[in-house]
Amino acid sequence: MIKIGDALPAVTLQEYSEVEGNGCSIGPNPVNVTQAAAGKTIAVFALPGAFTPTCSAKHVPGFIQKAQDFKQAGVDEIWCVSVNDAFVMGAWARDQKTDGKIRMLADGSAEFAKAMGLSLDLSARGMGVRSRRYSLLAKDGKVVSLNVEAPGEYKVSDADTLLTQIGA
């Protein structure tokens, strides 16, 4: 499992964006994690799946509500990573109204989750390999804070916990 001081995995995630008003879409576009994190402070939270109950009702909304607090604390970007395809993440972004607040990044083949050592096999529940629920703060691509949930829990990966750790 990734730990404090480690670099974020050098993998490529996918991001789907829309152009407001004309119905045209941009993407999915590749996001090279190493390049995208270089020189930035990034709050990352990962979760098992888009549109799932805890993720949609608590996890994403908490980061949306605290987006300005993260910016004031020196965080350049907030990333939500989930093992879904970019189109699903784009639809979830529209549903959750994350535009301008959270980058919704797809880890379609669970490469990021596996490289982090935080994959979770939910095949018995019909969901396949997913990501464990966690949050972290990365500075220039290196993990400086990490909060990994126990299976089925939502206690330490929330926005408030991460904000407290960065002194906001």
From TrEMBL:
<keyword id="KW-0049">Antioxidant</keyword>
<dbReference type="InterPro" id="IPR036249">
    <property type="entry name" value="Thioredoxin-like_sf"/>
</dbReference>
<dbReference type="InterPro" id="IPR013766">
    <property type="entry name" value="Thioredoxin_domain"/>
</dbReference>
<keyword id="KW-0575">Peroxidase</keyword>
<dbReference type="InterPro" id="IPR013740">
    <property type="entry name" value="Redoxin"/>
</dbReference>
<protein>
    <recommendedName>
        <fullName>Glutathione-dependent peroxiredoxin</fullName>
        <ecNumber>1.11.1.27</ecNumber>
    </recommendedName>
</protein>
<dbReference type="GO" id="GO:0042744">
    <property type="term" value="P:hydrogen peroxide catabolic process"/>
</dbReference>
<dbReference type="GO" id="GO:0045454">
    <property type="term" value="P:cell redox homeostasis"/>
</dbReference>
<feature type="active site" description="Cysteine sulfenic acid (-SOH) intermediate">
    <location>
        <position position="55"/>
    </location>
</feature>
<dbReference type="GO" id="GO:0005737">
    <property type="term" value="C:cytoplasm"/>
</dbReference>
<dbReference type="Pfam" id="PF08534">
    <property type="entry name" value="Redoxin"/>
</dbReference>
<feature type="domain" description="Thioredoxin">
    <location>
        <begin position="2"/>
        <end position="168"/>
    </location>
</feature>
<keyword id="KW-0560">Oxidoreductase</keyword>
<dbReference type="GO" id="GO:0034599">
    <property type="term" value="P:cellular response to oxidative stress"/>
</dbReference>
<comment type="function">
    <text>Thiol-specific peroxidase that catalyzes the reduction of hydrogen peroxide and organic hydroperoxides to water and alcohols, respectively. Plays a role in cell protection against oxidative stress by detoxifying peroxides.</text>
</comment>
<comment type="similarity">
    <text>Belongs to the peroxiredoxin family. Prx5 subfamily.</text>
</comment>
<keyword id="KW-0676">Redox-active center</keyword>
<dbReference type="GO" id="GO:0008379">
    <property type="term" value="F:thioredoxin peroxidase activity"/>
</dbReference>
<dbReference type="InterPro" id="IPR037944">
    <property type="entry name" value="PRX5-like"/>
</dbReference>
